[in-house]
Write a structure and sequence with these properties.
122 residues, Rossmann fold, five-stranded mixed sheet, STAS_dom_sf, SpoIIAA-like_sf, SpoIIAA-like
């Protein structure tokens, strides 16, 4: 499941727990991202992965990609917070191939990630 995390008005933030489905993306993440784009014309995104990556359904990963592509030019900053070294490395490399800045953070650096996403930390 995906839960919304309270964040500043210029950020959408989410926490993944347990099993994550495409429906979680469609009903929680996609509407929040759309609303943020309508409000500020960019996306500042924080995603705390508090479950094993194996708990994401394949269709959830596809929905994630669809959301990213739908708003391709709107990405400003995205932080993925996880203890998975592979996910952190992938996120850091992602900045080289898509618009916006993407950074991976360890869970212990959650506060730093949130500050960075909202633009208060370079």
């Amino acid at each position: 499941m995906i839960q919304t995390i309270h964040a500043p008005q210029n950020v959408v933030a989410f926490r993944a727990l347990g099993d994550v489905t495409a429906n979680d993306y469609k009903t929680i993440i996609a509407p929040a991202v759309k609303q943020l784009v309508e409000q500020i014309n960019e996306i500042n995104f924080l995603f705390l992965i508090d479950t094993d990556l194996e708990n994401f359904a394949a269709t959830a990963w596809l929905e994630d990609a669809f959301i990213g592509l739908k708003h391709f030019g709107k990405w400003n900053r995205a932080a993925i917070v996880t203890d998975s070294e592979n996910a952190i490395s992938f996120t850091n490399a992602f900045s080289y191939v898509v618009p916006g800045e993407f950074r991976g953070y360890k869970k212990e650096a959650f506060d730093e990630a949130l500050l960075w996403v909202q633009g208060n930390n370079q």
